[in-house]
What does this fold into?
Amino acid sequence: MVAIVRALYSNAAGNHTQGGSTITMQAIRLSQKNRRRNIINKTREAFLAIRLEFSRSKKDILALYASNAPFGSNVVGLDAAAWRYFGRGPEQLSWSEMATLAVLPNAPSLIHPGRNRDLLLGKRNRLLDKLAAVGKMPAEDCALAKLEPLPSSPLPLPQLAPHLLQLFKKQHRGFAGSTKLVSTIDGNLQKNINTIINQHHPQLSSNGINNLCALVLDVETGHSLAYVGNIYKPGNRELESDVDIIQAPRSPGSALKPVLYAAMLSDGSLLPNSLVADIPTQISGYTPQNFDLGYDGAIPAHRALARSLNVPAVRLLQQYKYPRFYEVLKQYGIRTLTNPADFYGLSLILGGCEVSMWDLAGLYASMARIVNHQEKNKGIIRPEDIHGPQYSEKMKTRTGSSNRNFPLDATSIYYTFEAMQEVMRPGEEGLWQQFSSAKKIAWKTGTSFGFRDGWSIGVTPTHVVAVWVGNADGEGRAGLVGIETAAPVMFDIFRVLHSVSHGTSLAWFKNPGYNYTYIPVCRQSGFRANIDCPETDTLKMPPLAGKSTQCPYHNMINLDASGIFRVNDGCESPANMQQRPWFILPPAMEFYYRQRNHDYAGLPPFKPGCSELSPGKLIEVIYPQPDTKIYVPLELDGQKGRSVFSATHKNIAAKLFWSIDDQFVGTTEKFHQLAVSPPAGKHMLTLTDEKGNAISRPFEIIDK
It folds into this structure.
């Protein structure tokens, strides 16, 4: 009151302008923007201050004032001042440092670390002396505190998660409430992952790969524990550091294959070990190829997923139907599929769409949550378990559809994660499983067409880690492959998560105790066993596995008494025959399967004098596929090149006669490949064996 009376007298006498106010009145003044300083406004502030005193405690009022007070150099608020002048939060400041900040709001435009330092030093020391005099601090501490120097030039504010800050500002633009964000980010983890990103960046940038980002989610809550939207070097314009790639739609490459695998297991149209075809395939002019350009002929579904083979994935999507898969992705939180399903077609499974890391990580976290909660929910999938990530506990969580008929069950997801953790880790030569300290991780990589995007995403019962590597402008680079660029970063992040500060047990997902069935499974083919399967195992399978296809590859054949030759009732008495189940693949699958599985036993030859009545097709054309359009470029010498056609026969010793448009062009034995050079136009290829069995295939040669 003395100061206020003195200010009134001085102003009324016209000597010079003086002020006088309490901390409460100062807090009110800070809330009144652009008001002139006069007696009317001062009286208004006084009444508002009285109201504030009745509605808030002294501690709350002091906190309100400290959060909005000016500290010089355009610094507002105690938190900002502590970081700007000392590079630490206010809870970490010493007596001297806090005393320096305490005296700054008194006259921030006159005294601050960049101006009138001697006056500031004197004010700080007088405050320290007062604290010691009233017994708030020992005299020895006061003396030591007075020896500490004042801060020098202001420090840059920390930029631990600049892209998350920009995302918050964008999503809360025009928001009338508080713009203060209490995020779910773990500060120490964020710092560690920033360090990892910066350690990997120089090696990547040497190959012209400028950008990378990483996201860590807590599975149980969906909270973002670390959010590194891009390499952050704003001084280098070439890096485009301001682009938040976590929110940017990018091609996911093969990162969606596990979702299709889980959907087909849930649907009962696939079992984990079922053999799937891996042969040259053409579907309406679309010809997918594996990354290594080779084929396995037939491969267990879980191995096809672990090796990320493209041809089996496309054939499985053709079986499952891409409109159904499109709806599964949208139901589990992929929001960037803005075009209808027909726009993407079968390329959906190979990255022919755009997916954000934010949505993709949320999808995998929802899948992990379903498995984690299957026991608690007694096998029921609850909509609240399917939701996207969030970076604040106050965010409204985006939940799954209210439709309770969710297409992915816990047992199918569990088997999917089992298949994903079989992948050989980069640099560890597949020996990581031999170490007891090795943490199980279900992980998948992805590489987009043109080597523009490298992905790696990993899942444990507690965390999801997603990493993207590439160029923000979409430029492709040789060597930009997910397993070589993104996977090493992801595993470095998991090592940090498994350290002491973020330690978790070595537990893996629990084998589901609800929604499963036991069925007999053919040990060799992985299909539901038929009566001809010689070896079967009764295995725990997803609930709809009972409607899956029975084994199509085991059939009974008739052998002579020696068991060496096949026979039939036209050349052998039934009394002298022996029946034996035999594993028989179609010719094209057998052709490639035999090359990688040397223990494969093809059908025995027929006994001399017996007619060949073999089950299934005898001849199969591998290339060209039906209605293939072929362009044959010129060779280096200027001559027209030739196309190499391939076929296979059930009888490995069979001879094939090749003709094009009824004109004989050649004969092959054992290895059925023939180089031909037909003229431009439509043609018909016909293959005939020595017994008259034939197959035809239309194709077209184009000029350009």
About this structure: The longest strand covers residues 681-689. DSSP finds 19 helices and 19 strands in the chain. Residues 67 and 77 are 4 Å apart (CA to CA).
